[in-house]
Each structure stands twice: as C-alpha cells, then as structure tokens.
Amino acid sequence: MSTTSAPPTLQDVTDAFEELYPPSWAASWDAVGLVAGDPAQAVRRILFAVDPVAEVVDEAVEWGAQLIVTHHPLLLRGVTSVAATTPKGRLVHRLIREGVALYTAHTNADTADPGVSDALAAAVGLAGPLAPLDPDPADPAGRRGIGRIGRLPEPMALEDFAAQAAAGLPGTAGGVRVAGDPKRTVRTVAVSGGAGDSLLDAARAAGVDAYLTSDLRHHPASEFAQHGGPALLDVAHWAGEWPWLADGAERLAGALGSRGATVETRVSTTVTDAWSQAF
To answer: Which UniProt keywords apply (predicted)?
Structure first.
C-alpha cells in the first residue's frame, strides 16, 4: 500500500527559498518576500515569472498553481490602499480570490551566487568560471554582487556574438542592440541582468571586449563608446532576466526535495516585456 506525503506549506517553501536567496541581501530600496498568501496553505505547483502582471496570473490559475514567484516586485513603492480600483489592487484581489500566493525575489536574486547574471552568462554562451563584475569583499558566501565576467569558448566577431546572444535569449520586439565595430573580436564579456548602465565604468575598468546588459540610456552609452570602451549589447530587460527563472525553480525544488517535500515547478513563457512591437 503506497502513501502520498502531504505537500509543503507556503511557509515551508518560503523558508527553503530564503535560504537560497536571503531577503537581507536585497537593496535597501527593494521590496522582496511574500506579497500575498496564507503561510499555512498547501503548495503543489509553483510558477516562476519575471513580472507580476495579469497575464502571468492567468497562466498560474489555468495551470492550477498555488504560488507565483516573480523577479520583479508588485508593490515596490509604498501604498496605502490595494482597492480594486487600480491594476495592482485588482491583481491583489484576484490572487486572494483564486488562492494563489505571490512571492518576490529581486535584488537578493541579483546578488546571489549563482544568481540572475550567472544564468544570463550561460544563456549567451559564456564559459566559466565567472568572476564578479563589481566584487564586494564584504559579501558573505553565496553572494557575489551584481554582474559577471566570463570568456567565450572561442573568440568571435561582435556581430556573431550578438547573433549568439539573440539565439540564447527569448525573442522580443527590440532584439539585441549593438554599439561597436561588428567585426571586432570578442573574447571576454561582462553581463548584468536588468538595468546595467551603473556598471559601465566597472566594465571599462575590467578590460572586457563587450558588455551585455539592458536599459542603456543614450547619453551614457554614447559617451562610453566615444572613450574607447568595450562594445555594448543592449537586450530587453525581461529577456535578460528570464534565464534565471529556470535556475531559481531548479534550486528551490532541490532544496525542498532535500527536506522530503515535492513540488512541481514551471517557468512562464509569457512575454511580459514592456515593448511589444517595433517598426
């Protein structure tokens, strides 16, 4: 006679997840952790996504998930009401009504080792070992700051690396934007998931051949190029962070499995990039 073990509670899941990505690692301005959900509720299915938007909640409900883990926060700035008179308020009401919990891991997942930039590096074809782009000697074990530096297995032209990066990341309307001589040889590459223009100086100081990130602004990128820095590759914010979802899901399932708990995880393929078309 076989027996089926009880599914973990939401508290069990968040406890395991926070050992991997401690909330204390998040930036002071960030909002991470449990957003909605009863810690005592059972969790059998977990959907991982970049953005907590209505389409992702639709996917979770259709699949029968009890928990959504997103990279981006729903309530990053302080609020005094979650009335269903705003898009975010309606989302909170629907989550509660459907019995779907929401948990966010943002800058604590960015700085983890492995974290968001490690997954991005793998997706665009960099070989390990990876070095931190902005090392912090105070970082504890399991944490290495935002950004990574890696090498390509074989040198290639910038245009070929751009094509390889585009093939390794989910497609978006904006694709991969490139600044630099397309024939330039690329061997070493720095990457940073999410908005990464704050690390332009670090990429230049590291002496890499190219820097791949998201949300680069016109003036900093223009000035960077004029001063002989690395080539720049700008990918969609959503696409650059999406590769981490599979890693986060695998690590969480493994952590729960070591505790004797089993969950089913799924990575959302819903494209939630802000830009849907380009002409």
So the answer is: Metal-binding
